[in-house]
Amino acid sequence: MGTGGWSYGRLCCGSITVHLRILTLTVSLMSIIFSILLALLITGTIIVIIFDNGDSAKKIAWLLIITILPIVGLLLYFMVGINFRHSWYFKKKHKKFIEVFGTKANNKVFRLLFGHEKDNLVKRDYKTLTKLLSCDGSTCVTDGNGLEIITSGHRKFELLMEDLKNAKESIHMEYFYFRQDQGSKQIKEMLMQKAREGVKVRFIHENIANIVIRPKYYNEMKEAGVEVEKFTKPRWPLVNLVTQLNYRDHRKIVVIDGKIGYTGGMNISDDYFVRWRDTHMRITGNAVAGLQYSFLNSWITADGDVDNDFSKYFPMCKDSEEADAALADKKSIDTENIDTDNDTEGNGIAEALAKAPIQSLDMNFKMKGMDKLIQIVPDEPESRWPNIHMGAVWAVQHAKKYIYIQTPYFVPPEPMLQALQSAALSGVDVRVMVPKKADLFFMRPANRSYFTECLEAGIKIYERSGRFIHSKTFVSDDYLSEIGSANMDFRSFNLDYELNAYIYDVTAAKVNKAIFLKDMEASKEVKLEEWEQRPWYQKFSQKVIRLFAALL
Fold first, then answer.
1. How many other CB atoms sit within 10 Å of the CB of residue 2?
2. Pair type for strands 227-230 and 252-256
3. Residue 247 carries which DSSP code?
4. DSSP 3-state assignment of 210?
5. pTM to 2 decimals?
6. What pLDDT is recorded for position 244?
7. Three-point CA angle 436, 442, 445, nearest 5°
8. DSSP classification of residue 359
9. Do 226 and 195 form a contact (C-beta atoms < 8 A)?
10. What are the backbone dihedrals phi and psi of residue 268, each rounded to the nearest 5 degrees, phi first?
11. For residues 268 and 217, what is the distance between their CA atoms, to the nearest angstrom?
12. 503 with 509: CB under 8 angstroms?
């Protein structure tokens, strides 16, 4: 018995040892296979990054992350790093809109959006810019526009609520943020009320930015008759993950009855209505067609339904003798004969604003007449060219006297940074205003990581205190202005769906310039001598975050 028990024990121990060895070999083999697959995946990803036509700084940042943290880096790259601009996937999504719009829109709509019949009304020096901004199917310059520049969130809320209340036919709304706070709920209730009254209300919400909002919030709108669509709804899970995380709808668009449009930097949130300093615009006239076109693009691409009759969405294109007569005027404006100093309205607003307290930015800046030249410029991954980025670089390169820029996120790609430096070194008064305290913890060191290069070139940097400034604007040479959704960073210029409005007008430029100068009263200029004395740990953190600037 003792010998048999001992033999059985040895047999069991031997069996366990064999199993352990097999398990060890299996684990080792799996580890080798995993390592080989990981190495192949890393190698393949590195090759893809190297052969990508994107920004070199962005590619270096991704290579660095994947080298330091291979698994985490690969996951991040597949989720937010792949460059889909002008890819077959987005082209396929966009094709549906092109087909529908091409079938349902009449010739007058196409003429207004793409006919370039008003390009000659723009000052001679800016004609090449209008052509650049309309490349790859983007809309052209329109005349006959009324404009109000909005620097108060409270003012925007009141105006928007009143316009929504008076809507008769349709309300189209597309926003990056649409929150659940007090102001947002009031607008939501108004949309539901108008839908119950029979107004066609269509609403697009961005996926990731509003991920905390439960479906019930949107279902309540649907039950009231509001047509609601998510911005991205691809059919394949992997593509769904990539596009939702990296390609976001950052636009802010409202179109009411095809006659009134809103766009700019303000989302639907009490941050914008109450707490922050931002810039928005209310447009009436022909430029609303550009906003309508952009909205319908997003709506149809997101599988939203539309009526067969598109003409009611473009009421400005109805037949009229006055419109046809205006189309006959093809004369160019002679830049030599334009006296920018003799602009009574713009000078008056600028002088009044200069004498008023900083709280005067809670005023409205509604300009007289319907004579503003406005070009609506959308940008999206479907586009072959990043026209908002190219347009911004062009504007800086061609500025002769000054260019003033406001942006909450100042992470300029290399072409933009070099354009700013070149302008300043050539004697142009280049000023950039950013918030002193950013809304995201990593954005302050990211913004500041560019200060040294800018200051050394003569660019003036201003950090605005008080209310967080979220404006995305620039103004140049008392003629060209831009107000929109695009920040001066890699994401807005290359990844997100954005929309900016270019305004070719002396009065509007002087108003925008006066707004910038008024914001300077709440700002402190960053001086190079003081900046160089900042603590070493700030310099270090800024250098580190700069490595990842292209990914922010």
1. 6
2. unpaired
3. S
4. coil
5. 0.85
6. 58
7. 55
8. G
9. yes
10. -95, 95
11. 15
12. yes
- The neighbour count for residue 363, using CB atoms within 10 Å, is 17
Strand partners, 175: 205, 252
> What are the two backbone dihedrals, phi and then psi, of residue 337, each rounded to the nearest 5 degrees?
-100, 5
Q: Is the dihedral of CA 120, 126, 131, 134 positive or negative?
A: negative
Cβ atoms 111, 274 nearer than 8 A? no
- Residue whose structure tokens are 């928007």: 160
- Comparing 300 with 235, the larger pLDDT belongs to 300
74: Cα within 13 Å, side-chain hemisphere: 13
pLDDT in tens, 468-491: 999 999 999 999 999 999 999 988
Give the pLDDT band of residue 87 (cuts 50, 70, 90).
low
Tell me the two tokens of residue 26: 């299996």
Residue 370 CB coordination number (10 Å): 13
Q: Please write the tens of the pLDDT for every residue from 135-166.
A: 877 899 999 999 999 999 999 999 999 999 99
Please state, in angstroms and rounded to a whole number, the distance separating the CA atoms of residues 519 and 299: 36
DSSP per position, 88-110:
HHHHHHHHHHHHHHHHHS-HHHH
From CA 485, how far away is CA 490, in angstroms rounded?
A: 14
Q: Are strands 280-285 and 260-264 parallel, antiparallel or unpaired?
A: antiparallel
Helix, strand and coil percent figures for the chain, each rounded to 5: 55, 20, 30
Write the DSSP symbol of residue 249.
B
At residue 541, the pLDDT reads 81
Q: Return the structure tokens found at 384.
A: 């072959």
Instruction: Check if the beta carbon of residue 427 is closer than 8 Å to that of residue 402.
Output: no
Distance CA 466, CA 437 (A): 9
Question: What is the per-residue pLDDT across 427-448, written as a single tens digit (0 to 9) for each?
Answer: 999 999 999 998 887 888 888 8
User: What is the β-pairing status of strands 410-411 and 488-489?
Assistant: parallel
Q: How far is residue 262's CA from residue 256's CA, in Å, rounded to a whole number?
A: 9
Residue in the structure block whose two tokens are 């009263």: 521
* DSSP H/E element including 504: strand 498-504
- Percent of the chain with pLDDT strictly greater than 70: 85
The span from the CA of 259 to the CA of 428, in Å, is 38
Contact 256, 170 (CB under 8 A): yes
Query: What does the alpha-carbon distance between residue 126 and residue 131 come to, in Å, rounded to a whole number?
Result: 9
Closest CA to 468 of 519, 544, 513, 423: 519
Closest to 546 in 3D by CA, of 446, 434, 413, 462:
446
Tokens 């189209």 belong to residue: 172
